[in-house]
């Protein structure tokens, strides 16, 4: 009789553990989705700021069409990007590079740098970039927690049974972190 109780107890424990692990995986997956939504919201905020920024710069530096067009094109590609976080990061890296190039061009225009409207938009963009970075860190922490739970034993058994898959991190390439080099003088 005691053996039956022990077997029932073990089976009950395994079932409770399985249900608990499944529920934890579902919660983690929802945290990842929610945190991606926060990144998406901040990216859309940046997309909305860029056309105004480009128009302001265009008024002062209209002959910088190539740089302005690069920002416009990069924004359009980033807005249209609907793939995985890795694909989105690739398009965002191009946009960030184009914005850096734009701000490097702005350095040659003291009147533009002093323009109240431009300064306000630049401040808004800086705040938005900070919020994107905070959201990215939050997202990546949630992805780390989910991926760890999916990969460690014994929860990996439950994860594989119910089709939980690791999520990609939202990462910025090291090459995109480099400051763009801009020269307005003769070749060096």
Overview features:
single chain; 188 residues; mainly alpha; 7 helices; 79% helix; rod-shaped; disordered C terminus
Please characterize this protein's 3D structure.
This protein has 188 residues and is mainly α. The chain is built from seven helices and no strands. 79% of the residues lie in helices and 0% in strands. Helix 1 (2-60) packs antiparallel against helix 5. It is rod-shaped and about 90 Å long. Residues 174-188 have low confidence and may be disordered.
Please give a quick description of this structure:
The chain has 188 residues and is mainly α.
Overall morphology: rod-shaped
Q: Count of DSSP helices?
A: 7
Give the overall pLDDT as a whole number: 85
Can you tell me the residue ranges where pLDDT is under 50 for at least 5 consecutive residues?
174-188
Q: For this entry, what is the oligomeric state of its chains?
A: single chain
Distance between the termini: 90 Å
| Largest sheet: number of strands, sense, barrel closure | none
Helix content: over 70%
Strand content: under 5%
SSE class:
mainly alpha
Rg, rounded, reads 24 Å
How many β-strand stretches?
0
SSE string, helices as H and strands as E: HHHHHHH
SSE inventory with pairings:
Elements lengths: L1 H59 L4 H16 L4 H22 L3 H5 L1 H36 L3 H7 L12 H4 L11
Helix pairs in contact: 1-2, 1-5, 2-3
């Amino acid at each position: 009789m005691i053996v039956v109780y022990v077997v029932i107890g073990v089976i009950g424990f395994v079932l409770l553990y399985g249900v608990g692990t499944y529920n934890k995986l579902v919660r983690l997956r929802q945290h990842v989705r929610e945190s991606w939504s926060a990144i998406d919201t901040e990216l859309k905020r940046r997309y909305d700021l860029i056309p105004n920024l480009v128009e302001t710069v265009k008024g002062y530096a209209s002959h910088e069409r190539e740089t302005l067009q690069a920002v416009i094109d990069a924004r359009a590609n980033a807005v249209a990007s609907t793939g995985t976080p890795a694909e989105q990061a690739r398009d965002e890296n191009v946009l960030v590079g184009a914005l850096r190039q734009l701000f490097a061009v702005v350095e040659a225009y003291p009147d533009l740098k002093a323009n109240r409207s431009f300064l306000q938009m630049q401040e808004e963009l800086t705040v938005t970039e900070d919020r994107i970075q905070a959201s990215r860190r939050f997202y990546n922490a949630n992805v780390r927690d989910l991926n760890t739970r999916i990969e460690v034993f014994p929860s990996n058994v439950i994860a594989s049974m119910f089709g939980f898959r690791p999520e990609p991190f939202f990462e910025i390439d090291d090459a995109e972190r480099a400051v763009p080099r801009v020269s307005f003088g003769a070749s060096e």
